[in-house]
Amino acid sequence: QVQLVESGGGLVQPGGSLRLSCVASTSSSSLLLMAWYRQAPGNQRELVASELAATIRSVGWATYADSVKGRFTMSRDTLGNTVYLQMNSLKPEDTAVYYCNAKYRNSEYWGQGTQVTVSS
């Protein structure tokens, strides 16, 4: 069983920055994709950023939702089992619970989520 734990959320002013972390209990050769999702109250969960395992282990080439492209960056700590989401130029509409997701060949796992609130 893989455990995913997010952290780094909090309250930030518009235009500010936060860096989210997702720590996996283990790495696996069966990992296919890592992704960040977010869900605001009353809204469906949406994909924010994702990266194939083959590329996440080298120089990152993630894909991003149009709403965050140019402001958010997904990356990996090559010395551990941690994936990051650097969020810059935050807007009130970025307010949501952010979730880490990992897809393997035969299963997928979700973190518990971390709250990000962007407000003056």
Largest sheet: 7 strands, mixed
Give start-end ranges of low-pLDDT stretches. none
- Gross geometry: globular
Question: Radius of gyration, rounded?
Answer: 14 Å
How many individual β-strands?
11
Mean pLDDT over the full residue set: 90
The helix content is: under 10%
SSE order: EEEEEHEEEEEE
The percent range for strand residues is over 45%
Compute the separation of the termini in Å. Answer: 40 Å
Give the number of helices: 1
| Structural class assignment | mainly beta
Describe the overall structure.
The chain is mainly β and 120 residues long. It is built from one helix and eleven strands. Strands 2, 4, 5, 6, 9, 10 and 11 form a seven-stranded mixed beta sheet that branches. The chain has a four-stranded antiparallel beta sheet with strand order 1-3-8-7, with no helix packed on it. The mean pLDDT is 90.
Sequence-ordered SSE layout with sheet pairings:
Blueprint: E1 4-7, E2 10-12, E3 18-24, E4 31-39, E5 46-52, H1 53-56, E6 63-64, E7 72-77, E8 82-87, E9 96-104, E10 108-110, E11 114-118
Parallel strand pairs: 2-11
Antiparallel strand pairs: 1-3, 3-8, 4-5, 4-9, 5-6, 7-8, 9-10, 9-11
Which keywords apply here?
120 residues; mainly beta; seven-stranded mixed beta sheet; four-stranded antiparallel beta sheet; 11 strands; 3% helix; 51% strand; globular
Describe this structure in a few short sentences.
The chain is built from one helix and eleven strands, in the order βββββαββββββ.
